[in-house]
Amino acid sequence: MKLPSRLSVLILALAAALPLTIGTSAYAQTATTVTADSFSVEPVRALTPGTELAFRLTATPGSDVTLQIGGATAGVRMQEVRPGVYEGDYTVRSRDRLTPTSLVTARIVRDGREMNATLDQSLVRGAPSPVQAARIGAFTVNAPDRIRAGDELKFSLSGVPGGTARVTVEGINNALSLTEVSRGLYEGSYTVSRRDRLRGNLVATGFLKVGQKETSQRFVRDQVASTNDQGCDRRESRDARRDDLATHATCGVVTAAGKAEIDDADSHNVLGTVAGGVIGAVIGNQVGGGSGKDIARIVGALGGAYAGNRIQNAREKTTVYRVTVQLEDGSTKTFDHAVDPALPVGARVKIVNGAIVRRSTTGDYQ
């Protein structure tokens, strides 16, 4: 192939690829966000069967827009009459249960991205906006009892669909945006950093804005307990003795409790020899008769001493009450008690200076 021919092929290839590159770039730019600028309806005098409702929406061009009307038996698919301008009609049916406070929500979808918009206007002329009566149904925060850096806070807010939800938390500087994961349900999460200052009670406020109206709901969780350096529950106390007692304490839960036998090599238990001697004397009384009773008692005592030694060897084990505790760091420790400490499996305890102390359910030290 001659050089001019090769150049011609190359130029044609570049010309064919250029529009594709430009188109892809424009597609990426328009697919970044989905927005809605205005949403309105032509209000009617009454919501009687046969009445026609006309809706109008301005939003991102090229979107798929559908309406859901509270109390209606069918939805509405809006048509893009001009770029970014959508219109749709709905005729009231006899089975519909529409009211002046019926909410109308637009679902806007483009290129896999979606948003909802709620009509801040009543379907009936002169009636107040249904959004004015809208309230947050529930606002909850899921968080560990003791919040540390790296822990995740999860937020859930339910209310009017098609709004914008956010959360503020005392000790966290920036507001946290929530996403509408399903109709009227907004969720989000946040990972605590070392810069955050979460102290005392967990206090968060959820905000829901629909149209120009915004409502809020507060969430407060009382602190279960503060922590000492060992991560053990500890409340502030006016009793200085209790504060001193809490020092060097670690916490855990009883995982096993019962009797056990341990070797007692360090102690000399004479109970076995005495018992053996008594047994030998009894045997001597039974073996001897007349003048042979004394000899029989001696032989019985010697045999009893031997038996006593056997009993002593067997009794060089002490029965104790053994309690196993799993500590908060995952390790386990075993504690032996001479008397039953009355600590059932599942009891919350703390270890103070090598001894087990039961914790109360309120988190205060006993």
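The record above closes out task 2.4. Task 2.5 opens with a second protein, given below.
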Amino acid sequence: MLELPPLSLYIHYPWCVKKCPYCDFNSHENGDKSGYIEELLIDLGEDLSYIQGRSIHSIFIGGGTPSLMSEQDLSQLFTGLRQKLNFDQDIEITLETNPGTFEIEKFKAFKKIGINRLSIGVQSFDNQNLKALGRIHSAQEATKACIEASKIFDNFNIDLMYGLQGQSTVECLSDLQQAIDLNPTHISFYQLTIEPNTLFAKFPPLLPKDDDIWSMGEAGVNLLEQHGFSRYEVSAYSKQPSKHNINYWEFGDYLGIGAGAHGKITLIDDQKMIRTLKSKAPKDYIENRKKTTEPIDNLAFEFMLNALRLKEGFDESLFTSRTGGSIPSIHDKLNQAKDLELLKQRGSKLYPTQKGFDFLNDLQALFL
């Protein structure tokens, strides 16, 4: 039987100063932003029935570049959120920010408004790499942003890419060491991938060979673990894991508001689960916002798509409470994964082996 999981909130801010050539997110360089905050709060109001008595476990404001919002807009937003929602006492509230000077100057205002975690999109501490990635900040600004963040926030993440054009393992580890030295609580260390409908898909950069990229990733994992960063998810390493991320991977619920925002909701009375999607184009969202919903049918696969990303895996009871299904119903697939040495079990705990983690797509596909 389905049980109500923790509930998070995702807020999408779709504008940025410049669209990066690798980015396939719903982000736009220009546009009329007037009325957007008001629409976010109306959007949230229409989703309040999905709360079903729960408080909000975590909030993540992504984009785009949400740190471009003015202090006034953020204050208006959080005033409205607090009027409509109950926050957990230890709620985690994350704001994505870029390391530009304009954003750094607002860090204290972000903290005052109630944001208690920053995710800083550094990507590289090498100016040549930043230029190739289309980033508009410098390595010096990236370092300054992290130093200033550490003075104001007890909890911040650094986003860092590897497998960049012309990058060697030595250069990758130099980037990573610089991130570690800035003492974040969390590092997202992930491979640059070429996504469809991006500028890089049309004009692909010459990336290192697959074997070299694999070596960078392996060496990066070792360096992070040597410095006390535990790998708790495929590309997430932490001294303090993100509550919001874990709720995603444990197949928790989340409201999604903003242009193109997705949500995932358990409807406990109906014993079913749905996904929600809001109008994608910012102009359409502001002027004529629509919400579409669709049922989630293959709950076992959807659960595994998320939970198997966690290094420590999951307990059998979590599968039952999140999907309403029983472990015996997927025994054949679990045994197949174990026979292929992709999955292990210790008591009631199921978790990917190192091989399963390295070939995660193959492991997840077994549950289709």
